């Protein structure tokens, strides 16, 4: 049979966000795969330089719709580090509470997506119904379901009352019961096992070489978790295990995420039952002295890294976001090769990709063979010219 | 007058009109049952009719690369084959036409839609439909043998190749119906594969290859294909009812038709249950499963029936 090359994306049913995978097929088997990024550039880092630190908080929240709290917390840790501000203990505890609630909602969402990609729609419907419980908790605590906006520079915006605590604990108890059912289902249902076992293999050496992070690395038996390795917020006071699995396949990633849910419930209970007293926020000056800061954070999908450079004004000089998907995409190519066409959606979904968080633009000139960076003035000139050709003149706009 | 009644039977009951209406009803029952089992609302009862009418009004687009005649003719072939099969299967007390060997004719007629699905995908010339049609054909080789084997068991036991004869035999010996359980279960699973429903909806697995063999179809051509699939569900359920469950069980008139509806609805329930319980498997896993487990089970039923026949004399 001759080899055919099939484009998987940027427009494809299984991809929620545009990204391109070129697959070389021989029959149903994949001989080679290439990952092509760059369909989803949003210019967030550039936009952050144009806004104040507080405005950036709400911009950074929108880097990702699922791990919105992860990005803001990572960013705000940098800002507070540069401003040399002492964040109150209670605020850190509330941030931890939101971080774990977010992990619960993200992992439940992933379980549903994985079920959908393997054609198990019942699992999808069930997990997304139960995910509503944790979204309700988040809404109860912050007023919002997805972009909670709980962080503010120097602390958090809202306190947790005793009634809210009782309500959240009640819902967590229900979720614990449901999650135990899903763990049983995922480990005992034969078709789930048939679809996920030995699919998208990523051995530990390869995971280390390709820099896999989060559940993708932990399913290859690598105990890599920022919460344990370099504790931030109040994770050093919490009692939890780093879940690993040694099957190196999609099944392992499924089990790791399901068991991590249980750990997250444990942590939510610990945080709520041991909330320290005190203020929830302190005042931080608008202008921040020149300096640089780098921080990492264990987002539901893996290690998220933010770099921030300040220049003494109320706006950052440079912000760099390295989303976990970028680290994990390197492994996707390896996982796809040698696999079946039918497993492509599942293998891609198994790293829990978030493409729009990942895309950055680099202009590469194939004739000269070199990279080129555009400044703000050049980009503005190009945009004005482009719209002029279409008959709109934006040149007089400030 | 003599020619009008058979014509009315073919066009209205139990022919085309009944088949189309009941096919849509079963489609709704199936969707509603799945929805309830998955904790959803599900569609209202007129949804299949609304979908049918909507698709009729849509534009038909034929790909430039495709064979125009073949592309347009295939849906009608599929419909015609399914409708012809229904003429040979008893609804109520008796089938419209019955002869020795009509069981074989029905199996043959039910293979035609699958072949048209393959040709439909192949003639559309797009990557998704090509992969889809390859899977249709591969899947055909997986489920067809277990399905035929499981249908042969009751035929051997009854000593006849006519569907009406098999029904009559089981109506006369209802105690032998439970003895066909293994074959019945094998046939239900193989039928699920024939109807390309979860966990065997591999040819049009939407997350992998979009619409599969029907990707390039639109408007009324797609509509007729979908109607043929709905009708295939009715024909499949009716065939299992007649072969395994004793058909009308000796009842006549309205009671026989009511029994037919009840039993086909029960079979639809079993098919819907299978659909919500499992994840889609890969094509090579399906072939393994059908040849390693399903075909031996069906074969065991055939051997058991031969043994029973010998015992009963």
Q: Nutshell version of this structure?
A:
The complex is a heterodimer of chains A (398) and B (313). With 398 residues, chain A is of the alpha+beta class.
Describe this structure in words.
The complex is a heterodimer of chains A (398) and B (313). The model of chain A has no long low-confidence stretch (mean pLDDT 87). Chain A has 2 domains: 44-320, Orthogonal Bundle (Cytochrome-c3 Hydrogenase, chain B), CATH 1.10.645.10; 367-398, no CATH class. Chain A has helices at residues 44-49, 53-61, 68-83, 89-117, 121-142, 162-188, 190-196, 204-209, 214-218, 226-229, 250-273, 324-336, 344-350, 355-358, 376-389; strands at residues 4-8, 20-26, 29-36, 151-152, 155-156, 291-299, 302-310, 316-322, 363-365, 370-372. In chain A, helix 3 (68-83) packs antiparallel against helix 4, helix 5 runs antiparallel to helix 6 (162-188) and helix 6 runs antiparallel to helix 11 (250-273). The longest helix of chain A has 29 residues, at 89-117. Chain A is of the alpha+beta class and 398 residues long. Helices cover 48% and strands 14% of the residues of chain A. Chain A is globular, with a radius of gyration of 22 Å. In chain A, 45% of the residues are buried. In chain A, a hairpin with a 2-residue loop joins strand 6 and strand 7 (302-310). With 313 residues, chain B is mostly helical. Chain B has one domain. In chain B, 72% of the residues lie in helices and 0% in strands. Chain B is built from 12 helices and no strands. In chain B, helix 10 crosses helix 11. Chain B is globular and about 60 Å long. The N and C termini of chain B lie far apart (46 Å). The relative contact order of chain B is 0.16. The model of chain B has no long low-confidence stretch (mean pLDDT 87). The A-B interface holds A 4, 6, 12-14, 28, 115-123, 125-126, 129, 189, 191-192, 194-195, 340-345 and B 37-40, 127, 131, 198-199, 201-202, 205-210, 276-285.
């Amino acid at each position: 049979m001759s080899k055919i090359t099939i484009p998987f994306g940027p427009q494809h049913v299984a991809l929620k966000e545009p990204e391109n995978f070129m697959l070389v097929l021989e029959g149903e088997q994949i001989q080679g795969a290439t990952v092509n990024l760059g369909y989803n550039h949003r210019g967030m880092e550039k936009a952050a330089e144009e806004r104040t630190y507080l405005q950036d908080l709400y911009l950074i929240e929108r880097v990702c719709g699922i791990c919105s709290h992860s990005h803001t917390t990572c960013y705000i840790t940098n800002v507070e580090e540069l401003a040399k501000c002492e964040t109150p203990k209670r605020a850190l505890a509330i941030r931890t509470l939101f971080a774990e609630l977010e992990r619960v909602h993200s992992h439940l969402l992933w379980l549903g997506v994985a079920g959908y990609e393997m054609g198990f729609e019942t699992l999808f419907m069930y997990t997304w119904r139960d995910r509503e419980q944790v979204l309700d908790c988040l809404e109860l605590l912050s007023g919002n379901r997805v972009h909670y906006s709980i962080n503010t520079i120097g602390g958090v915006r809202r306190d947790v009352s005793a009634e809210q605590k009782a309500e959240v604990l009640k819902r967590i108890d229900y979720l614990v019961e449901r999650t135990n059912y899903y763990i049983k289902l995922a480990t005992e249902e034969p078709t789930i096992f048939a679809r996920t076992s030995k699919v998208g293999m990523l051995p530990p050496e390869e995971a280390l070489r390709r820099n896999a992070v989060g559940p993708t690395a932990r399913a290859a038996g690598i105990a890599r978790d920022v919460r344990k390795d370099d504790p931030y917020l109040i994770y050093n006071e919490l009692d939890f295990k780093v879940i690993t699995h040694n099957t190196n396949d999609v099944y392992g990633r499924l089990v790791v995420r399901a068991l991590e849910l249980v750990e997250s419930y444990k942590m939510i209970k610990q945080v709520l039952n041991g909330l320290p007293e005190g203020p929830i926020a302190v005042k931080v000056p608008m202008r921040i002295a020149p300096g640089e800061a780098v921080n990492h954070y264990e987002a539901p999908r893996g290690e998220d890294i933010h770099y921030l450079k300040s220049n003494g004004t109320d706006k950052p000089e440079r912000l760099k976001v390295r989303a976990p998907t970028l680290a994990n995409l390197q492994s996707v190519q390896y996982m796809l090769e040698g696999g079946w066409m039918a497993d492509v959606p599942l293998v891609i979904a198994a790293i829990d990709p978030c493409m729009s968080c990942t895309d950055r633009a680099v202009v590469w000139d194939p004739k000269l063979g070199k990279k080129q960076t555009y400044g703000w003035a050049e980009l503005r000139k190009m945009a004005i010219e482009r719209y002029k050709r279409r008959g709109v003149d934006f040149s007089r706009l400030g | 007058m003599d020619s009008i009644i058979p014509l009315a039977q073919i066009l209205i009951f139990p022919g085309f009109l009944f088949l189309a209406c009941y096919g849509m009803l079963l489609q709704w029952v199936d969707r509603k049952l799945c929805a309830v089992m998955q904790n959803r609302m599900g569609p209202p009862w007129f949804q299949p009719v609304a979908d049918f009418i909507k698709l009729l009004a849509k534009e038909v687009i034929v790909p430039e690369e495709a064979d125009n005649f073949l592309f347009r003719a295939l849906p009608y072939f599929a419909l015609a084959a399914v409708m012809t099969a229904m003429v040979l299967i008893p609804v109520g007390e008796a089938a419209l036409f019955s002869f020795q060997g009509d069981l074989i004719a029905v199996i043959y007629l039910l293979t035609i839609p699958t072949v048209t699905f393959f040709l439909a995908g192949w003639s559309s010339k797009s990557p998704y439909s090509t992969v889809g049609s390859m899977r249709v054909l591969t899947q055909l080789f997986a489920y067809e043998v277990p399905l035929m084997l499981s249908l042969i068991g009751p035929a051997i036991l009854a000593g006849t190749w006519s569907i009406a004869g098999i029904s009559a035999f089981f109506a006369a010996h209802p105690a032998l119906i439970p003895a066909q359980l293994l074959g019945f279960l094998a046939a239900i699973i193989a039928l699920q594969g024939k109807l390309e429903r979860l966990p065997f909806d591999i040819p049009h697995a939407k997350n992998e290859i979009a619409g599969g063999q029907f990707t390039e179809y639109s408007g009324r051509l797609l509509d007729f294909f979908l109607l043929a699939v709905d009708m295939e569900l009715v024909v499949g359920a009716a065939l299992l009812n007649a072969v395994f469950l004793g058909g009308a069980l000796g009842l006549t008139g309205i009671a026989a038709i009511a029994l037919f509806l009840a039993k086909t609805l029960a079979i639809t329930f079993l098919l819907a249950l299978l659909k919500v319980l499992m994840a889609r498997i890969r094509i090579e896993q399906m072939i393994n499963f059908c040849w390693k487990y399903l075909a031996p089970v069906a074969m065991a039923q055939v051997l058991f029936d031969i043994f029973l026949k010998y015992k009963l004399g």
